[in-house]
Amino acid sequence: MKIEFRLNGKDVSCDVPENYTLLRMIREVFGLTGTKKGCDQGECGACTVLMDKKAVTSCTVLAPVVNGKDIITIEGIEKDGKMHIIQEKMVEAGAVQCGFCTPGMVMSAYALFIQDKHFTREDIKKAIAGNLCRCTGYEFIIDGIEKALESRGK
Amino acid sequence: MGVGKSVIRVDSVEKVTGRSKYVEDIYMSGMLHAYVFRSPVSHGVIKRLDVEKAKECEGIHGIFTWKDVPGKNIIHVIYDDQIFLAKDRVLYQGQPIAVIAAKTPEKAREAAKLIEIEIEKQTPLVDFEQSKGSDIKIYGDDNVFCSFKVKRGDIKEAIKNEDLIKVEDTYYTQHQEHAYLEPQGAIVYWENDTLTIRGSMQAPFYVQQALTEVLNMKKSRIRVIQQTTGGAFGGKEDVPNIVCAQAAICAYHLKVPVRMVYERDEDMMTMSKRHPGRTKISLYCDKNGFFKAIKGEYLENAGAFSTLTPAVLYRGTVHLTGPYNIDNVDVIGEAVATNTVPNGAYRGFGSPQVIFAMESIIDTMAKKLNMDPVRLREINLLKPGEKTCTGQIVDDSMGMQEVFKKCVKESDYFKRKEEIEKYNEENEFYKRGLGVSTLYYGVGLGAAGKHMSRCAAVVKIDGDGSMTVSVGITEMGQGLRTVAAQMTAEAFGVDEDLVVVSEIDTSRIMDTGPTVASRGTITAGWGIVQATGRIKKRIHKFLEKKYKERFEDVHYRDGKVYFGKNEMDFHELIDLCTSEKVRLHETALDMPPECTFDDNGQGEAYFVYAWAMNVVETKVNLLTGEVDIIKAHCCHDVGKAVNPREVKGQIMGGSLQGLGYGLMENMQLSSSGSLLTRNFSTYTIPTSCDYPEFIPLIVESEYSKGPYGAKGFAEQPLMGMAPALTNSIRDACDIHLKNIPATPERVYKLLMEEK
């Protein structure tokens, strides 16, 4: 079926089988492979993207649902070839090991970042509770996200 | 810049932006997808297998069975018992029978349903305690894959002393799933008449060897390149031999690129796990608490094939008695077969099972002696110059005492113990507790793996002063590429930015064994030190010739080079060397110190040891059996922390895997051997809401033979967390967990029994 939506700030359209997930569509139709498939069951969070400003696991969203929506992926948060501050702070904090959970983790953090609110460390923990990481023990990830959120001055 | 600094990881920008290419991110034109048809039963005889109808399906390019294997139908690991594609019998549910190559993964799955198979079911052997000598034969005459012993002193004589105090118990540990976030995968294609494999793996040389045998091809025609790997933890040591062989047999026959990426449920169901174990220990000490003798029996459930079990069992057997000075030792380790998924390498490699038992029984002894568990450990811990259970003197890089002192001090153990006692008096339904564990870890492959123990590096400096380094060690998230860049940069006193650590490629570098056993830093480091050292020597000679004078030393610092009274920019020097044709390219090959292990389990079991202590605080809800982990002090002697921040990352990440093992990770099998927990909703691992306040502590007792004093330790953080956790639960509410994980059901049941 034909669907139209916004992808990383641009209007796009494509013909896609109805049973495709958003994950499969962005990876295979649009070639954006930064979003990872860790379980395809909505449990690990590696495929997290933003849909209408909310973090969703793209493996549990069917492509037709995306019609008319605004989707942001990991490829859509860098500006002029410069990393988003969440990415900068995560790199500095040592939040990256194997890197497979990282793009999803960044997107969950980004969903907080764009809200006009203050978030505590506990809020951050809850916000990424659906993003599994097996390498880091989470502490450095949360450090990085916290620093990035602080930079907003809220 | 250089060794000892927390420099930014060289791979982190690529990863945080999503630009790193993992196997599933590679698309090639004409690429097919492979999918495996597997045994639906745990034990049976294949009576008929017909793939012809399935082959007719649209989109199917080929289906391959044992008949299509050009070489040996065996996946080589240590023994040759692991069948590649089942021919006449199946020994576990999920055992591979055929590989389907199709245009899409969906078409492959549809075709799999049309494969006709008749299997005569046989009774499966699932309970590993019943395996040895069972009528159900899986391996050899008695189902025993291997055994090891460690005998020291005279145990019979020692325990005749009736004044000794004895405690004994039996402990059980469960399967543990690696849960690397990136599932297993490989892509195989032909290039330059060479079968090229790009895969998620720890040990490209294993894959090359295995494929040589399966495909009956020369090694030089099989080129294995490690693709960016999304976590491994042992789960990608030998298992990629299987995954790559599955994709490779399709590409071999069809001559087109074939990609194979496991779905999560398939991965969890069929890939290796930590061996479940049973450990019986009898510990004897005198009235002052000094350990005098120990008897241990360790039984491992290996699953249907031996894979890495002999090596896993070796480490478990040698690590059972812990970092304590005990003169009389009698330990036996044995591994047996069952009709369950083959178990293999997992961070700690056979040791977390026995450490759980040993560290638990020490607390039983402490209770019996009415001593604090920390004091009891303190008087028994090895000191420099004393001997391990294999009779090995530990004096180089022996940081146990310093680790102990630092951990007790930083955790404020004794003061907190008092505070907790007060808390527990005041609270009826919540009880808090402190638990500890002390442990050691033999770095590297040890005597059991010494035939694979080599280190190599290729260092090349280009005319502009930038460098490329190749090592035989893989990056799987642990930070190896960063550490290798730091060590190379250190040698020339330059910034890491000048160094590129290339991907590992079997066509470019010598076989240096697998990236396992916490040997990455030391193995890559030895190669780098040797290769850079030779280049520096050559430059030294060149400068002496050029300047016609002797220089005591050529010193590299902050991008400058100093010799005699001369000073030069590093870039200038390299430019000069290049123009005068000094060879700035070097290949190093070195052997680590020798390890030995005799028939009685005595010898230099490992060339050096890492040391650790953990203090864990928990809070137990007496009404529900739920346990909250509050705080964990994890102190590790790492030799030299090449990158302290990354060391802390290893400590916290590994410790959380250990806490998961102790608290919640609960793999379930049915009575017929079917693995029931096949996804992250049934096999739960710690989330950001489960981890405690971590206080990672680093001790650096430098290893005299190690590169820049480094040794290796990355498995150790996992190994002692389960007993520190259960000991803290015991401290809180006086229940003795002899099984893990400490699920609320299990804790609650013990609390009820206690009443």
What's the structural blueprint in terms of helices and strands?
The complex is a heterodimer of chains A (154) and B (755).
Chain A: E1 2-7, E2 10-15, H1 22-29, E3 48-51, E4 54-57, E5 70-72, H2 85-93, H3 102-113, H4 121-127, H5 139-150
Parallel strand pairs in A: 1-5
Antiparallel strand pairs in A: 1-2, 3-4, 3-5
Helix pairs in contact in A: 2-5, 3-5
Chain B: H1 12-16, E1 32-38, E2 44-50, H2 52-55, E3 60-64, E4 89-90, E5 96-102, H3 105-113, E6 116-121, E7 144-152, H4 155-158, E8 165-173, E9 185-191, E10 194-199, H5 204-215, E11 222-226, H6 239-254, E12 258-261, H7 264-270, E13 277-285, E14 291-303, H8 309-319, E15 328-337, H9 351-369, H10 373-380, H11 400-411, H12 413-426, E16 430-442, E17 455-461, E18 467-471, H13 480-492, E19 499-501, H14 520-547, E20 554-557, E21 560-563, E22 566-569, H15 570-579, E23 585-590, E24 609-621, E25 627-637, H16 644-663, E26 693-699, H17 716-719, H18 721-733, H19 744-754
Parallel strand pairs in B: 1-12, 10-11, 14-15, 18-19, 25-26
Antiparallel strand pairs in B: 1-5, 2-4, 2-6, 3-5, 7-15, 8-13, 9-10, 9-12, 13-14, 16-24, 17-18, 17-23, 20-21, 21-22, 24-25
How would you portray this structure in words?
The complex is a heterodimer of chains A (154) and B (755). Chain A has 5 helices and 5 strands; from the N terminus they run ββαβββαααα. With 154 residues, chain A is α+β, with helices and mostly antiparallel strands. Chain A folds into 2 domains: 2-74, Ubiquitin-like (UB roll) (Roll); 85-150, [2Fe-2S]-binding domain (DNA polymerase, domain 1, Orthogonal Bundle). In chain A, β1 (2-7) and β2 (10-15) form a beta hairpin. Chain A is globular, with a radius of gyration of 15 Å. Chain B folds into 3 domains: 23-122 and 184-261, Aldehyde Oxidoreductase, domain 3, CATH 3.90.1170; 277-446 and 598-754, 2-Layer Sandwich (Aldehyde Oxidoreductase, domain 4); 454-590, Aldehyde Oxidoreductase, domain 4 (2-Layer Sandwich), CATH 3.30.365.10. In chain B, 29% of the residues lie in helices and 24% in strands. In chain B, the strands form 6 sheets. A 7-stranded mixed β-sheet of chain B has the order 3-5-1-12-9-10-11, sandwiched between helices. In chain B, strands 7-15-14-13-8 form a 5-stranded mixed β-sheet, with helices on one face. In chain B, α5 (204-215) packs across α6 and α8 packs parallel to α9. Chain B: This is Xanthine dehydrogenase.
